[in-house]
């Protein structure tokens, strides 16, 4: 077996001790309890994705790949391959990583004889996991360099063209000069959870923050709560585990903090980036981008290649997941005795709308940060970084 497909223990995903299966961290129990759950069958993986036991665009792509590998161990016929891929693809609609991973496995498996499919699918699922971890590490390096360039007022560099992108420097409320001489930490705002919990490892938006922290740059993170699912609490838990200073804020506090000059940059992940650079991400992202533009705060989006949808011309074509209204009507947490509890805020019959994502127009995005480098959020910017993908799409 090639080294790239060897099982490994990542932060959010690991091989199960017995048999050909994997375990995931149950994110519905975090941040209160850290519990690993086994995925031994296709339907375990589908259930985990649909119920958000596992979540975050790159991670659900990897888990879907393992789900299809588990399906092949159950039934590797042509009909089962097509049906299992369709079943897994239907679990969540917005993050394109899910379809990307399933398409990749289907393209590999359909030409193979059924008897060879389980082995090949298992190896490919691990290859996807390894690649995602490596890509997120690279996003961390590129993103950290870009943020440091902003601090020192250099502006970023558009890899691989070398053209400068953007000239804005960070908000100077604390007279930030250079990273090491900063009189106060670099204040970065994020939304939702785009850390190692949302990927196979390292994270997307949080990877540059982890990298800066590891390099000794003083960083403080404004973590927005991210109602209704409160993924910001997952971000806070992750940052606490790694010793990165942070403060949780209500989603609605973000604009005030930017107005007051308390935010040097915003960085978020993405669930799908259209060919023109429009970005679908957790609902509330768009409002942060608007506030950032109004106050001259750089707004970055970090994502790996599996999040890029070159077949989708613009954000208006991205499907937006509508989730159950009870996610809004109820709040899970702990009671006074520290037992798991759910509080109902609204009766079940009260009308609510619960779109899980929104779309930030490319014009509001300072730059995209991918495993290949930093580029403008535009057709041309993405085509410069991914010429083979851009030219492969029908126009
Ligand atoms: C690295 S993940 C980026 C996005 O997937 C993340 O910000 C997000 O929107 C996750 O949504 P979720 O509904 O929690 O799966």
UniProtKB/TrEMBL annotation:
Binding site for substrate: 55-57, 92, 231, 281-282
Keyword Methyltransferase included in the entry's annotation: no
Function summary: Catalyzes the interconversion of methylthioribose-1-phosphate (MTR-1-P) into methylthioribulose-1-phosphate (MTRu-1-P). Also catalyzes the interconversion of 5-deoxyribose 1-phosphate and 5-deoxyribulose 1-phosphate. Part of a bifunctional DHAP-shunt salvage pathway for SAM by-products.
Gene3D superfamilies per UniProt: translation initiation factor eif-2b, domain 1, Translation initiation factor eif-2b, domain 2
Keywords on record: Amino-acid biosynthesis, Isomerase, Methionine biosynthesis
Organism: Oryzomicrobium terrae
Name of the protein described by the UniProt record: Methylthioribose-1-phosphate isomerase
InterPro entries associated with the record: IF-2B-related, IF-M1Pi, IF_2B-like_C, Initiation_fac_2B_a/b/d, M1Pi_N, NagB/RpiA_transferase-like
Pathway involvement of the protein, from the record: Amino-acid biosynthesis; L-methionine biosynthesis via salvage pathway; L-methionine from S-methyl-5-thio-alpha-D-ribose 1-phosphate: step 1/6
């Amino acid at each position: 077996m090639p080294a790239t497909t060897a099982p490994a223990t990542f932060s959010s995903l690991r091989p199960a001790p017995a048999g050909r299966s994997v375990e995931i961290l149950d994110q519905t129990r975090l941040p209160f309890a850290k519990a690993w759950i086994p995925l031994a069958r296709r339907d375990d993986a589908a259930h985990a994705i649909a119920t958000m036991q596992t979540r975050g665009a790159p991670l659900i792509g990897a888990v879907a790949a393992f789900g299809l590998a588990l399906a092949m161990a159950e039934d590797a016929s042509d009909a089962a391959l097509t049906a299992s891929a369709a079943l897994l693809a239907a679990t969540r609609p917005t993050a394109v990583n899910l379809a990307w991973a399933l398409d990749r496995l289907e393209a590999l498996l359909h030409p193979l004889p059924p008897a060879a499919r389980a082995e090949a699918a298992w190896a490919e699922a691990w290859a996807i996991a390894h690649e995602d971890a490596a890509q997120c590490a690279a996003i961390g390096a590129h993103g950290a360099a870009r943020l440091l360039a902003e601090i020192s007022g250099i502006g970023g560099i558009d890899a691989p063209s070398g053209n400068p992108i953007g000239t804005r420097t960070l908000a100077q409320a604390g007279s930030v000069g250079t990273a090491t001489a900063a009189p106060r930490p670099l204040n970065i705002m994020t939304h939702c959870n785009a850390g190692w919990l949302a990927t196979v490892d390292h994270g997307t938006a949080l990877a540059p923050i982890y990298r800066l922290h590891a390099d000794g740059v003083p960083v403080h993170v404004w973590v927005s709560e991210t109602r209704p699912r409160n993924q910001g609490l997952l971000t806070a838990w992750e940052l606490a585990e790694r010793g990165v200073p942070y403060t949780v804020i209500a989603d609605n506090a973000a604009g005030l903090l930017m107005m007051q000059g308390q935010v040097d940059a915003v960085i978020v992940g993405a669930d799908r980036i259209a060919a023109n650079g429009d970005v679908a991400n957790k609902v509330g992202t768009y409002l942060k981008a608007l506030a950032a533009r109004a106050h001259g705060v750089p707004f970055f989006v970090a994502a790996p290649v599996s999040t890029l949808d070159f077949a989708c011309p613009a954000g208006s074509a991205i499907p937006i997941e509508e989730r159950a209204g009870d996610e809004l009507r109820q709040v899970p947490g702990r009671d006074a005795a520290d037992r798991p509890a759910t509080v109902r805020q609204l009766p079940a019959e009260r009308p609510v709308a619960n779109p899980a994502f929104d779309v930030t127009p490319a014009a509001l995005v300072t730059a995209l940060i991918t495993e290949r480098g930093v580029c403008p959020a535009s057709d041309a910017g993405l085509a410069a970084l991914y010429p083979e993908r851009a030219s492969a799409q029908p126009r």
